[in-house]
Amino acid sequence: MNYLTGETDRLIQNDMLLCTAPNPSSREHQCVRSGTSVLSTIFLIINATLGAGLLNFPQAFDRAGGIGTSIIVQLLLLVFITAALVILANCSDITNTSTMQDMFADFCGHKSLFLCALCIIIYSFGCCLTFIIIIGDQFDRVFVTYYGFDYCHTWYLSRPFVTAVSCSVFILPLCFFKKLDVLSYASSLGCITVLYVAWLIVYKNFTKNESLIDPMKIWPDNDYEALQIIPIICFAYQSHMTAIPMYACMKDRSLGKFTVCAVVSMIVCFAVYTVVGICGYATFGAGKVPSDILQGYTEKSVILTLAIVFVAIKNFTTYPIVLYCGRDALLSFLGMDVNVNGRFRVFITLIWYILSLTIAILVPDISPVINLLGVLSAAFIFIIPGICLFQNILRKDSELYLNKDRLQMVFAIFITALGAFVSGIIFVQAIRDFNKASQLPLITGFRQLRQSLCT
Q1: What mean pLDDT is predicted for residues 3-19?
Q2: For the residues 4-17, what does the mean pLDDT come to?
Q3: Which residues, 6 or more positions from 125, have their beta carbon under 8 angstroms from its beta carbon?
Q4: Where does residue 438 rank: exposed (0-12), middle (13-18), buried (19+ CB within 10 A)?
């Protein structure tokens, strides 16, 4: 890969390949660079991070043995999760790339591009399937509440029809954009919906009437319980796959500003996840927390219905972000430029959307497969950033003369090993959940994906 030396050349190259559109030779383009602001980038990161895993955090606190353990483990992992975001942005600057697979290929060779791209394709497609199934679940709950258990015998309330129409209206139009910066507006809406769901869980905890027989615990009974929350944390904070495209589309693309965006976003996510985990756990007590916290609220109320609908809206706004990364990875896997002409990009988008919608409607329970794919989340968060940091240090200081480079090398090895350890935990837990069909798996960060509620 050719490296550009001048600051002006670097900005022009970034604008041509990474962000938006006027001709780079124009005078206006040289003076003003379009893209996302710092606030818009924060919204994009938060929207990609705060997902359906939010509804599982109360049970994760329960299964981890208490709120003390859950908060400490979450904080420790969050340090490395945030550092990995910054590492990915820095490595993309060094390699002048706009996708994770291109950056990885620059450090590890062209053949590694296909492996990284394949992992992104599989993981992205699995997430898109899950988003659509969760959307169908939310409409099912609303119709059962207000229409009854025979709602699906009315054709316009049936799950396939409602899911297909709602996704085609609210998701599909957002999937054709060439760059992520346009999705910042939808991401701000997604953040608002998540905050409402968090408020509802807090409100329900403080307005509950009955006292708990088994109150929540602070510390676990054994050390193994503390590991139970690690998989859900990896899924809950998995925005690393989209980090490089988000960084590439910043209006003022600098590592310092992206670091601020990453730190602020992770602090907001930590606050929301922790508040939801504690309040949801406190509402139901030890051993009584449902895998989807909203399932535990059975009353018929407008504020609860709004929260259920908002979960669907949140998935409407997250699906296009994940599809964007999967589509670019697919184009790279096929050996094509990610800036391919518009018609072919539209074709790939339609195929991806139609295939994911069809599978989600016809196969509503894919949780065992999604659980096993969860191993990839640890790779995106820890292993790939660790390997890239390792290779970057060897590239610039192969003899490790500087103490700073030695420390970074130790850190790179550590987070790579941490990623391998976490991947092993996720894989073992996925197998355990698969063998225990009577239990609702927690591993994916998504609740159990089941058949329609219709009778």
Answers
A1: 41
A2: 41
A3: 326, 352, 356
A4: exposed
The torsion of the CA quartet 260, 262, 265, 268, rounded to 10 degrees, works out to: -80
Q: Exposed (0-12), middle (13-18) or buried (19+): which is 72, by Cβ within 10 Å? A: middle
Report H helices in 334-402.
Answer: 342-362, 367-373, 375-378, 384-396
The arithmetic mean of pLDDT across residues 262-275, rounded, is 94
User: What pLDDT sits at residue 180?
Assistant: 81
Q: How far apart are CA 296 and CA 284, in angstroms?
A: 8
What pTM was computed for the model? 0.85
The beta-carbon contacts of 74-77 under 8 Å, at least 24 apart in sequence, are 74/229, 74/233, 74/270, 74/273, 74/274, 75/270, 77/230, 77/233, 77/234, 77/237
**One-letter amino acid of 265:** S
Tally the residues of the chain: 455
Write down the pLDDT at residue 32.
Answer: 45
At 185 the pLDDT is 85
**How far from 273 is each of 161, 280, 322, 405, CA to CA, in Å?**
33, 10, 21, 34
| CA–CA gap between residue 321 and residue 149 (Å, rounded) | 34
3-state DSSP call for residue 250? strand
| Model confidence band, residue 449 (pLDDT cutoffs 50, 70, 90) | very low
Summarised one tens digit per residue, pLDDT across range 112-140 is: 999 999 999 999 998 898 899 889 888 98
CB < 8 Å & 24+ apart, contacts of 297-305: 297/204, 300/145, 300/146, 303/200, 303/203, 304/200, 305/142, 305/145, 305/146
Name the β-bridge partners of 250: 36
Asked if residues 26 and 33 have their Cβ atoms less than 8 Å apart, the reply is: no
Q: Which two tokens mark 372?
A: 């096993």
Residue in 130, 83, 128, 19 with CA at minimum distance from that of residue 447: 130
